[in-house]
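Exercise 7. Given the components listed, write out the predicted structure of the assembled complex. Treat all entries as one system.
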Amino acid sequence: MKHENKVFFLIDVNNMYVSCERVFDPSLNNQPVIVLSNNDGCAVARSNESKALGIKMGVPLFQIKDIVQQNEVIVLSSNYAMYAEMSRRFHKILSSYVTDEEVEPYSIDECFVDFTAYEKNFDLEKVGQEMRQQIWKWLGLPVCVGIGRSKTESKIANHIAKKNAGFNSVCDLVSMDPCNKEYYFAQIDVSEVWGVGRKHSKKLQSMGISTVLDLACAEPREMQKKFSIVIARTIYELQGISCIEIEYTPPTKKQIVASRSFGGRVTELTDLKEAISMYAQDACKRLRDEGLLCGCMIAFVQSNPFDPNVPFYNKSITGSFSEPTDCAVDFVKAATRMLNEIYKAGIKYKKCGVILTGLEPKSGHTYDLLTDFEHIEKKECLMQAMDGIHSKFGKKKIGVGPCFIPGRTWSMSRDKLSRNPFRWDELLIINA
Amino acid sequence: MSEIAPSIIQIKPYLTQGAVLSEALSFKQVIPTTQMLIPYALEKISAGFPSPAQDYIDKALDMNEHLIKNETATFIVKVASLSMLNAGIDIDDELIVDRSLNAKHGDIVVALIDNDFTVKRLMIDEKGQWLKAENPDYKNIYLMEGQELIIWGVVTCIIKMIRKS
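Answer.
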């Protein structure tokens, strides 16, 4: 499945979360800004100004308190609902350039476009510039565009566009002179290559392969013996031979994770039970939206991994259902029961959650001979009634247990949350 | 030979089409807006035979379709200023803003000056671009040296709730 004449675009929003915040709050422009993870724990997005101050990705806020104070870094909570809507629009604009089968939304802020069919009729760099300008004008989001003969090459092209201002945010490796291409490849660390990662890059470095160019010049079959087929594919891809296709359909979910860390430290079993029953219901909602049944549930609890004074407590337990289910009552019952097993008194808990696995499509499930269908039907009626109430009156109007009553001791803290301009009661306000 | 080959080719796209269709159905799209359809009675004076089934309730009114031409680039903002009162924009009115449009002379725009939002009428004349307030109590905005005017979006519609609750 190797192709030499493919064309891929990788479009990527620069500092996505910060850029989204700036669209609706321009006073953040040109200021150092960071966006924190859930519960205001770690910096998960940084403006260029913050990067310049040496704030690293994923660093916990308490470790950078001094930098933040001295430089008046603006600290924001993450507003995922807003980012998701901006992301939807970002992907929608890009899908207007090709057919649906040729777009792959790779993540909230990245998108692959297979442009092979149109190559001959367009100037690729111009198309890239057009995409960039359209997304900037329509959404106010700055993007970089990388163009290559493979997905891996388009990723590297995107990296080059980001790091070299001269490209005006669009780098087209397809039409680039091979000598220039070598020059840029020789400057980029091999760990930047898509799919290489830190683990492999150490081993590569020990073999004298330290730049993208070194890897691109390696012999794929030799490398396959030393590593795996994945690295061989990566080498072909860097040489402009496409081996990885666009995946335009999201693969069916293998598992559903619902967890969050707490606003404060939680020590009591009853509080933990309330929290986990909410996450179990979140997970159930997502399971039902996908039309799946769950056969197996994992419940876990954690203390704060960053606390140097007490040992990290991290326990999980797995349980399976006698009959695969999509009923919130079953999940809450199971989660709270499992929690009894892993709870230890005297621990300051920071996080708990559930993972649903053993998923299968509900429509394809074969029930066994002894199934009590009356019981299943009863539960389904109950769940449909709950779903109906949720969609009509909101997710928090009805639930199993007391978890949706406001002011729980374990609820999330998001102190610096911006408004969501896509809600009627939080619209952007123009006051001049 | 040439008669056999095409039938295979005909079958192939049909097969892949089926696959695409079923996958597309399982893919849940996020739709940010709800649609409220209002039945619309279409009165038509026709000279020929009446066809009541076709002429009556022919089309439903969809406010989104009517008010929003480009969903992807449309944002809704709320006004907290009286500077455009004479253009019909009052406090608490909501504006539909389309960022995909190119602002013309005379358009009402949401603009940024020194990273502050403002809603004004865009004027383009021999002095260049300036912003006109539609209320004598408010000043027009002329750009000073080094100041930049950024058009955030073009206002296409005012949503005004006239029955105060």
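Discussion: Chain A has a mean pLDDT of 90. Chain A is about 40% helix and 20% strand.
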